[in-house]
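Hey,
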Amino acid sequence: MTQHDHLPRNPGMALDMDWVMRAQANTSAIERRASTLPGRRSVKKDHQAAWLCKAISLIDLTTLSGDDSAGRVRRLCAKARQPVAPDILDALGMTGLTTGAVCVYHDMVATAVDALEGSGIPVAAVSTGFPAGLSPFHLRIAEIGESVAAGAEEIDIVISRRHVLTGNWKALYDEMAEMRAACGDAHVKAILATGELGTLRNVARASLVCMMAGADFIKTSTGKESVNATLPVTLTMIRAIRDFHDRTGIHIGYKPAGGISKAKDALVYLSMIKDELGDRWLQPDLFRFGASSLLGDIERQLEHHVTGSYSAGWRHAIG
């Protein structure tokens, strides 16, 4: 399946404050459910290898460091094209496996687009004053346009957390709608920075408002907060997605980001998506992992499946 096939984009809708204010989150129940998830699903051997290959196809392979260079980004793109050693893929009978996207700062978009030419792998750019989102608004909008012009097919924007913390849902809606418009044909992922929103109820309401304003994806975190993707936050956000789909028929994507570095954690997230949203969300047009080190651990697990031995992490470059 190619990126974004078959499903219409989220056209957005008018802000429905009644719906927003009715949104609640039973924190204790959500935390209880989340605490049971790692033990509820267990896949082994060939089934586990298949699920781990699926996880690779859903990774936004990411570098967002102040010392990023053209060379590093080109190596990352080479890894996105060939995420697992060919001999391991041959043993698994896998062909054509790539990551879901490559995610970089605006300054590296052109380099990534050039390095990925012909691969079909989209470039995602973090934007709008990432990670704090506190630069002047007109500059945040201009940054989106610059990244789209440079070839980014996906834009990961950050919301103004203060709108959520002060309950100014109209301001959040207007901001998100303008950012969505600035993206044009590029798909927009709204980063909620959930670790800074205070409560799961705020997470639920912010998720709904961003979807109403036209977000194609909602994303947990920038990866720069002290608390990033968690299972309770994920349950809250994907249930908001399910509610939105039930009410509108529109499919919204989900991206947990930050802190997901182990293959076993990726399997928990995938099982949660399957349980709560269904198989259609296990495709790269509706689910992504925002990760850098996750791929390396998955590759180690796949090599163990094939050879019976664990390799050193340094054998799996860039992962």
